[in-house]
Structure formats: structure tokens, C-alpha cells
Design brief:
The complex is a heterodimer of chains A (178) and B (219). Chain A is built from one helix and twelve strands; from the N terminus they run E-E-E-E-E-E-E-E-E-E-E-H-E. Chain A has 178 residues and is mainly beta. Chain A has a domain of 91 residues. Chain A has a six-stranded parallel β-barrel. Helices cover 22% and strands 34% of the residues of chain B. Chain B has six helices and 14 strands. In chain B, the strands form four sheets. In chain B, strands 3-2-6-7-13-12 form a six-stranded mixed β-sheet. A three-stranded antiparallel β-sheet of chain B has the order 1-10-9. Chain B has a two-stranded antiparallel sheet with strand order 4-5. The chains are: A mainly beta (178), B alpha/beta (219). At the A-B interface, strand 10, strand 11, helix 1 and strand 12 of A face helix 4, strand 3, helix 5 and strand 14 of B.
């Protein structure tokens, strides 16, 4: 889907270096963490088996469903991001999904949709888009008081009648351009 | 022994050295309009909320207590490049194109805040028409209209304290004139909705609660 640009792209994995004995060191174990530095630009998908800190630019997709993804203050991501937890301190244009939690720090600028059982938005964070709220995460939170049934019936009975030239809701404004 | 300069330093306060710049005041007030609007929305966790203001942490937390979905639009585009393209000092209406997706015609509650005060009549009509498209029949609309002579030069940031109280935080101390929006004009502006309640508050604010009509007049 995305092609990596050879001139700009850089792998997240560090290149194995030879030891003094002339043998390659053992491959890095999964479960650590990696950083994409501020000067790095990646065009393409990023996936892996460790936590990721993004301080550079990514144009593509970030899939680390079992790990934590942090978009640092210098990070600029134009991609959908999927992680266990996703923390945003920089800029994101794309959809964020997390299995556990999404945190938008006060420096975050996000345009896209968010889906996670827990969403934390710090004051100062700029967000534009939709937030899906998981019903399972509502335990312990205050619930709006129930509206009495009598009120609901009264509201339903006072519906406006259609005027001449009126259209039923389901057909309304198909050609609308905002 | 007490040194003379020492006593001078101790008594000097920061305010005496550096006059503090004027800060916008944050005021909390009772909002019967918000309470009424919330009374009219589903309480079973299925509620979908459209917020035309900027993202505010407290509002997200409050809405998450009863809603399954929140869409934050920030309808006034504040970016310098697009500012005041329509003249007359009005703000620029943000694009609403992204809203016409899967959540079309599904919202139960729309928090308009004071956005309409910062738009021309044409812009406001376009916005309300778009909002009407996105709402379910009987969805509630909460609107704040200023009845004062002046208002903050940019829209206030409204923070939900609880279901009957709001805090408004002016983004600037600069003031500008208030457009003339008497109740009749507001009712006309809210095409596709019927005004069910209006409240005149002590600090010169009108709150309106409107419900989406089942029957919608095409333009």
C-alpha cells in the first residue's frame, strides 16, 4: 500500500554491529522500546514487538497492538495509530485506537477519531474529531438522572406536524454541502 | 543586625515590581439551558453528542458519563490564514465535511455554545442546516446568545462543571460588538428545530434549548 522512500526512510531496528570478536551480537529481544528520532521520516507502515516513541515523522500506519506508542512533542504522525496505550504529546492526523487507554497531553494536536476504553484529555490539548466511548469503561462514573416516562410521552406527543413542502427526516437534505 | 536593603527586598511584592497583565476572568454560573437540554437526551448510554466548541477536558469527562460517542468540531476556524475571509469581522466556519460520515443523522445532543454570535447570518444558517442533517428527530440543541453590548473578541471556552453549571473562560480580554439576535431572529435561524425553552440570565446571556423537528423543510 505504501512505498518506502529510500532517501528518507529509516528502519526502526538498529543495524547489528560486529563485536571485537568479529561475531554479530544476538538480536535484540522483543519487549524493549524503540525511538524514532526527530530527524527520521518514515513513509510506510510501522509494526513490531516493542514499545515505540515517535519523535520524527511517520506517514502511513503504526500497528503495535500489544505495545505502548508515544508520539513525542516533536513527533508528527499522519497515520492511523493502533497500540495498547497511545500517548500523544505531538501532532497526529489520523485515527487513534488503543486496547487500554489513550492520553492526549496538553501539547497534543490531534485531528481524527479516537477509540479506547479510557480516554484522557489534558487541558490545553487540541482535538478535533470523534471519541468512541466504551460502555464497559463507564463503571463508577456518574450517570445522568433518568427522565420520567411521563415526560418522554409528553415530548413524543408534541411532535410537529409536517407543513406544506416539508420532507420526512429520512430524505432530508441529501444534497447538502457544508 | 538587620541590613537596610534586606528589609526593602522583603516588603516588595511581585505586583509592585511587575504589574500583572489583565487576565480574562473565569466565571461559573447556573445554566438552566444545559440542564434542560440534558433532560431531553437518552440516559441509557446510547447518546451521541456533537460539540461545536473546542476540546475541553472536563467536557469530555462529563459527556463520557452518559454518552457513547462525542464529536468535537470546533466550528470557528481560528487559524490566521483563513481568518475573516467573509469580512465584517466574522469568524470563519470550519469545514463540516468530515461529519457527513457514519454518524450522519445520529446525534441526540448538540452543544452549540456561543458559536452563532461569531458567524454571519449566512454562515450561521449553513451551520444549523448542517447540524439539522446530523441530528435525530427530537435531538436537543443548546445555544448561548449574548444580549450585552460587547462580547469577547473570540468565542469563550465553556467548561461543564456539572449538569446545571458552566464555567466560561474568555480566550482574550479584547472585546467586540454583539450581533443583534433577538429571540425571533434566533428562532428563525434555528431552522429545522423548534425552540422549547429560553432563559435570560443575569449576566446578559440568553440560553436557548431547541428540539429537532421530526419534519424537516428542505432548502
Amino acid at each position: 500500500m505504501f512505498k518506502k522512500d529510500g532517501s528518507e526512510a529509516s528502519s526502526v531496528q538498529p543495524r547489528p554491529q560486529q563485536t571485537a570478536a568479529g561475531r554479530n551480537p544476538p538480536p535484540r529481544r522483543s519487549g524493549g522500546s524503540a525511538t524514532i528520532g526527530p530527524s527520521i521520516t518514515i513513509k510506510g507502515d510501522v509494526s513490531g514487538d516493542e514499545d515505540l516513541m515517535i519523535q520524527g515523522r511517520i506517514d502511513g500506519k503504526v500497528k503495535l497492538a500489544k505495545h505502548n506508542v508515544t508520539i513525542g512533542t516533536d513527533g508528527h504522525v499522519k497515520a492511523d495509530v493502533h497500540g495498547r496505550t497511545v500517548v500523544v504529546e505531538g501532532q497526529v492526523e489520523g485515527d487513534l485506537r488503543a486496547k487500554e487507554q489513550i492520553i492526549l497531553r496538553h501539547t497534543a494536536r490531534v485531528e481524527g477519531s479516537i477509540a479506547a476504553p479510557r480516554v484522557t484529555l489534558e487541558d490545553g490539548a487540541v482535538f478535533r474529531g470523534g471519541i468512541e466511548m466504551d460502555a464497559n469503561a463507564k463503571d463508577g462514573k456518574p450517570v445522568i438522572a433518568k427522565r420520567p416516562d411521563s415526560e418522554r410521552k409528553a415530548g413524543a406527543e408534541s411532535e410537529d406536524r409536517p407543513a406544506k413542502g416539508a420532507a420526512e427526516d429520512k430524505d432530508a437534505g441529501k444534497s447538502l454541502q457544508a | 543586625m538587620k541590613l537596610p536593603w534586606r528589609s526593602r527586598v522583603e516588603t516588595a511584592t511581585i505586583e509592585e515590581v511587575l504589574p500583572e497583565p489583565p487576565r480574562p476572568s473565569f466565571e461559573t454560573y447556573t445554566s438552566p439551558g444545559l440542564e434542560e437540554a440534558l433532560r431531553g437526551v437518552p440516559d441509557d448510554g446510547s447518546c451521541k453528542v456533537l460539540d461545536l466548541g473546542p476540546s475541553v477536558a472536563d467536557n469530555v469527562e462529563f459527556v463520557s458519563s452518559f454518552a457513547s460517542y462525542l464529536q468535537i468540531v470546533d466550528a470557528i476556524d481560528r487559524s490566521p490564514a483563513t481568518e475573516d475571509t467573509e469580512g465584517a469581522g466574522f469568524g470563519r466556519l470550519s469545514t463540516l465535511q468530515g461529519l457527513f460520515g457514519e454518524h450522519r443523522r445520529s446525534f441526540n445532543l448538540v452543544l452549540v455554545w456561543d458559536v452563532l454570535n461569531y458567524l454571519s447570518t449566512d454562515q450561521a444558517e449553513r451551520l444549523i442546516q448542517a447540524v439539522a442533517e446530523l441530528c435525530l428527530p427530537n435531538a436537543r440543541l443548546h445555544v448561548i446568545i449574548f444580549a450585552t453590548d460587547t462580547m469577547a473578541a473570540v468565542p469563550n471556552r465553556y467548561r461543564i462543571v456539572d449538569r446545571a453549571r458552566l464555567t466560561y473562560e474568555p480566550g482574550t480580554t479584547e472585546l467586540r460588538g454583539v450581533p443583534n439576535l433577538p429571540p425571533a431572529a434566533v428562532g428563525k435561524l434555528l431552522k429545522g428545530f423548534r425552540v422549547e425553552h429560553s432563559f435570560v440570565l443575569q449576566h446578559g446571556v440568553h440560553e436557548y434549548v431547541a428540539a429537532r423537528k421530526r419534519w424537516y423543510v428542505k432548502k
